[in-house]
Specification:
Blueprint: E1 2-6, E2 12-17, H1 20-23, H2 29-42, H3 102-118, E3 122-125, H4 135-145, E4 150-153, H5 160-166, E5 172-175, H6 182-187, E6 190-194, H7 195-204
Parallel strand pairs: 1-3, 3-6, 4-5, 4-6
Antiparallel strand pairs: 1-2
């Protein structure tokens, strides 16, 4: 699949061939959904905690005598039905992560890239560089390209001036190729790949 290469000045920089094994698959929503759940559940802190009846600070003395009250029999005030008592089956610190094989995760990434390509939301950029390193200049260049909501993926290393200029622009994310992931691809409207990023993806999935 051939696609044109653009520059930050909205100019043409030739064409590039995108491999069908990465960008030409028929997207599987079920696999992409599994991967998004895998990512979001893995990053949940899981630090929520509620005190049970063994942890609340109340007296352990028996509330009243066992017999003769005409009411229910109770031991101490830490029981869940009493105000100030412990919570029954409350949340405890745990990991929310679910399992997903490495092969399935790699396949999900390829399907996410294919989904963007099928929707016409992939842009190939010649190189992500900024001579001035100014946010205003970069913002005006993005406006010409109609990039108001985009994820930009560069090669193994980001150019410091470009990354610094882009980090203050709302709804624009910049990541090295090592950080590419399904969740970030889907949360932005446009996926911008530099030629270095495309080469790295081809080498990764070869």
């Amino acid at each position: 699949m051939k696609t044109s290469v653009t520059t930050l000045d909205a100019g043409k920089a030739g064409e590039i061939e995108l491999i069908d094994d990465i960008f030409g698959l028929e997207p599987r929503p079920d696999l992409i959904h599994r991967m998004v759940r895998y990512q979001t559940l893995k990053r949940m802190a899981g630090t929520h905690h509620a005190q049970d009846r063994s942890e609340v600070a109340v007296t352990g003395k028996k509330m009243y005598k066992q017999k003769g009250t005409g009411g229910a029999r109770h031991g101490d005030k830490s029981a869940p039905q009493f105000r100030g008592g412990g919570k029954a089956f409350g949340p405890k610190p745990r990991s929310h992560a679910i399992g997903m094989t490495k092969k399935a995760r790699a396949l999900a990434l390829r399907h996410a890239l294919s989904a963007k390509a099928k929707a016409g939301e992939i842009v190939i950029l010649d190189k992500a560089s900024s001579a001035e390193g100014k946010t205003g200049t970069l913002k005006s260049q993005f406006a010409k390209l109609a990039w108001s909501n985009a994820l930009i993926i560069d090669g193994a290393e980001l150019e410091p001036t470009f990354a610094r200029a882009a980090r203050n622009i709302p709804n624009i994310d910049v990541l090295p190729i090592q950080g590419i992931n399904v969740y970030d691809i889907l949360r932005r409207k446009k996926l911008v790949l530099t030629k270095a990023a495309v080469a790295a993806l081809e080498a990764r999935f070869k």
